[in-house]
Request: fold
Amino acid sequence: MNRFAKIFLVLIVLIGISFPFAGVVQASNGLFDDENPEEPVPDGTGGAAGTPTPIRVRMNGTVKAYYTSVAPSIDGDWGDWSSPENPARFVVVGGQHRSGTADLDASYKLAWDENFLYIAAKIRDDKYVQNARIDQLYKGDSIEVLFDSEFFGDFDNTSLNNDDYQIGINPGHGSPSGPKEAYVWYPANQVGPRDDIDIATKRSGGITRIEVAIPWTTFNVTPETGAHYGFAFGISDNDDPLRDTQQTFLSNIRKRVLANPTTWGDLTLMQ
Reply:
């Protein structure tokens, strides 16, 4: 075989080796390209191509407060409330002191406007006992509001901070017609009585009705439709007129833990 024939044969062999691999794409090694990583999409703002990302909620208990153009009269009468009624029947403390819903039961309604968060509570209780005052008011018949004003900012924070509020409402010292008071236990930089929270109480036939107007300035927030907050509602009960004590505590949250906001529910402001 002459020299040119040998060269021609080598070229044919090389071409035959190359052609089978033409157009073959290299398989992925299972790793993402980290030179240009995709930025994570913030909660609720939507993903690529306009795909919405669901707003995070705590599955402990989700409630809604509906906007009202006419503020309810804070007089203990539910007649001017159209909001839906929410139950608060989970026993958090003192189940041994409660024989059932006929002995102690609670529900509540929520509303809002530009100035206030409104709460209406209905409590079935065979005895009204409230002889405690100020920071001890929870040792008598009373209600409690937990509110997280920075719900998304510290969604996974398991400890209290300065945007988490615990507010107690004394519906009437000595009797439902007695002096009312509100007290802030948390945050630590706002501890003390609050005289800007409006409270009214009526009791009839073993049922105590309480209405409360809490200024939004209490929580340092500006309300708007769609705003989302951490929230829990509860009631303290005492049937012993000779001793100030929290015998039973009911909540709208089954496993509410005061010091852990991730166990609270959430509240959405609706139009």
About this structure: Residues 4-53 have pLDDT under 50 and may be disordered. Residues 155 and 254 are 19 Å apart (CA to CA). The chain is about 5% helix and 35% strand.
